[in-house]
């Protein structure tokens, strides 16, 4: 089943930067989490249009990371690579958006939620009433 994630990259979203995260298919057997810096379309005459994203990859396997509660909650600890090591990827390689939260104790480290049910927000709204 195909669905649409609305992802954004905005340096001034309500006066604060907002750069969404996503899970991207780099190669047949390799997926990574990334922070979206910029999305754009490139038109090549006589060939066609291509949609790209400039992304800042996250690395996994943080030393001392992944305690049992993180695994039980399906959280992945990641660290952003330096901004200068950002890469270009095709937008069609995006699998889905991802939710991330920065670790206040460790600069450039985040927790990424691996799975969120598509109806999670509807369920939460039902529980609130």
Characteristic terms for this protein:
mainly beta; 2 helices; six-stranded antiparallel barrel
Account of the protein in words:
The strands form 2 sheets. The protein has a 6-stranded antiparallel barrel. Strands 1-2 form a two-stranded antiparallel ribbon. β1 and β2 (16-19) form a beta hairpin. It is mainly beta. It has 2 helices and 9 strands. The longest helix is centred in the C-terminal third of the chain and has 9 residues, at 120-128. 11% of the residues lie in helices and 53% in strands. The radius of gyration is 16 Å and the shape is globular. The protein starts with 8 loop residues before the first strand and ends with a helix. The model has no long low-confidence stretch (mean pLDDT 76).
Concise overview:
The chain has 129 residues and is mainly beta. It contains two helices and nine strands. It is globular and about 55 Å long.
Using the CA coordinates, give the radius of gyration.
16 Å
Strand order of the largest sheet: 3-4-5-6-9-8
Share of residues in helices = 10-25%
Shape: globular
Structural class: mainly beta
Topology:
Elements: E1 9-13, E2 16-19, E3 21-27, E4 30-44, E5 48-60, H1 68-72, E6 75-80, E7 87-90, E8 94-102, E9 109-113, H2 120-128
Antiparallel strand pairs: 1-2, 3-4, 3-8, 4-5, 5-6, 5-7, 6-9, 8-9
């Amino acid at each position: 089943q195909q669905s649409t994630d609305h992802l954004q990259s905005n340096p001034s979203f309500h006066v604060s930067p907002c750069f969404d995260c996503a899970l991207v298919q780099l190669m047949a057997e390799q997926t990574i989490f990334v922070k979206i810096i910029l999305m754009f379309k490139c038109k090549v005459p006589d060939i066609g249009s291509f949609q790209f994203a400039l992304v800042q990859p996250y690395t996994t396997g943080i030393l001392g990371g992944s305690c049992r509660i993180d695994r039980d909650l399906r959280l992945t600890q990641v660290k952003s690579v330096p901004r200068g090591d950002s890469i270009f990827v095709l937008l069609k390689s995006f699998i889905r958006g991802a939710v991330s939260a920065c670790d206040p104790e460790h600069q450039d480290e985040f927790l990424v939620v691996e799975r969120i049910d598509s109806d999670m927000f509807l369920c939460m709204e039902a529980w609130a009433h």
